[in-house]
Amino acid sequence: MKQQFQSIFKIPELRKRIFYTLSILIVFRVGSYIPIPGIDSEVMGAAMRNLSNTLFGLYDLFAGGAFSRATLFALGIMPYISASIIIQLLGAVIPYFQKLQKEGEEGRKKITQLTRYGTVLISALQAFGIAQFLMSSQMSARIGNQILPVVPNPGIGFTLMAMITLTAGTILIMWLGERITERGIGNGISLIIMIGIIARIPNVVVSEIKLISEDVRGIFTEVILIGLMFIIVGFVVLLTQGQRKIPVQYAKRVVGRKVYGGQATHIPLRVNTAGVMPIIFAQSIMFIPSTIATFFPNSEFIQGMMRFFGVESIVYWIIYGTFIVFFTYFYTAIAFNPIEVADNMKKYGGFIPGIRPGKKTSEFIDNILTKVTLPGSIFLAFIAIFPYILMKVIDIDYQLASFFGGTSLLIIVGVALDTLQQIESHLLMRHYDGFLKSGKMRGRH
């Protein structure tokens, strides 16, 4: 491991890419602390503490805490993700987008352009909504003996300024993410989300040290929590990397004097094809009741209903887990099309041993995918619910519990594995070039 780490910085291109990525991420974190004009940051922080278990709290997670501070990057990268998801969903039902997806590089460029336009539109709409929300009556907090509003001077001027700055901030994040993907290492958008989540770790560590110093929690309990975290991370890595390989054989074809095909390969069906998206969708839906309840603080009926949708309720956990299983199948059906895979195999002379090409192949792949997805979806639901179980059993706060499962852990593990795989590919490629230069591999070509 030490030797591999040293090798990273011995390769000029890889070293340049890593430093470029780090510099872009630093720019992102600096922008997360630049507040938009016209707000009181102290009042904003106090008001947002009351909304941590709502949809706004989820949004703040992906914005790396920028939303709770109402900064330039308060919208985060979520408008871009929303636009990408919408385009992807349209590709499953609208022929025009299906055609673009099959046009190769030109189609990809057009889809990227449409995603950017969609990002600007969604950002502007969300920025308008946030401006109205910041000016609303519930966005106030008690500072000393006074109840102060987040926006001291509300009006059309603040609304326009917020829309311009927040939309520009999201477009800047999108551009930074694309620069990382193009000139850095790893997926830029995913890394920006991961860094926003990791940025909360210092606060969690400080709060835990404070609890130990005040004898609220013992060192033995902390050791158990650390050991439990390693175990959970190990299982999440298995979930992320787990796959079922379906063998595929390609028939030999003679074209002129050349023989094509004849090789054996496989189709990797991932246990968790949907990734973190089912948890995001389910969490967004489950936070809707609590978000609505914040707008009706004096309604006894709505506040009474909230007891069934609070994180302390077993009903919440059951519904939440069911939604995750449903969305896992839903998103897997969108992300992986067995019919398209079977048609492509048939076109290039590929077949699964013992299965007839065409419809029978697509049915076989769909059947295997359904069986593989079931344990993956159940384990995904367990990982998502696990933080709430810890909160009940060990009595820890949500900030710490979120690193034991749920959206945060899956994003961190998934992005970290993807980035490490890209670094490893650069290392292997460099070693391969070295063999060729030394002449040791020439005789084997």
Q: State the shape.
A: globular
Give me the CATH superfamily of the largest domain: SecY subunit domain
Number of helices, where a helix is a run of at least 4 consecutive DSSP H or I residues? 18
The percent of residues in helical segments reads: 55-70%
The neighbouring-strand order within the major sheet is: 6-3-7
Radius of gyration: 25 Å
CATH architecture of the largest domain: Orthogonal Bundle
Structural domain count: 2
Structural class, from secondary structure content?
A: mainly alpha
- Determine the N-to-C terminus distance: 31 Å
Give the amount of beta strand, in percent: 5-15%
Poorly predicted regions are 432-445
Q: Please trace the helix and strand order, writing H or E for each element.
A: HHHHHHHEEHHHHEEEEHHHHEHHH
Q: What's the total number of strands?
A: 7
Mean pLDDT: 77
CATH structural fold name of the largest domain: Preprotein translocase SecY subunit
Largest sheet, in brief, is: 3 strands, antiparallel
CATH class of the largest domain: Mainly Alpha
General description of the model:
The chain has helices at residues 2-10, 12-31, 41-48, 55-62, 78-93, 95-101, 104-135, 156-183, 188-198, 201-213, 219-241, 277-293, 300-309, 314-335, 338-347, 359-393, 398-401, 406-438, and strands spanning 140-143, 146-149, 243-250, 253-255, 258-260, 264-270, 350-351. It is mostly helical. It folds into 2 domains: 16-199, Preprotein translocase SecY subunit; 207-445, SecY subunit domain (Preprotein translocase SecY subunit, Orthogonal Bundle). The strands form 3 sheets. It has a 3-stranded antiparallel sheet. The longest helix has 35 residues, at 359-393. Residues 432-445 have low confidence and may be disordered.
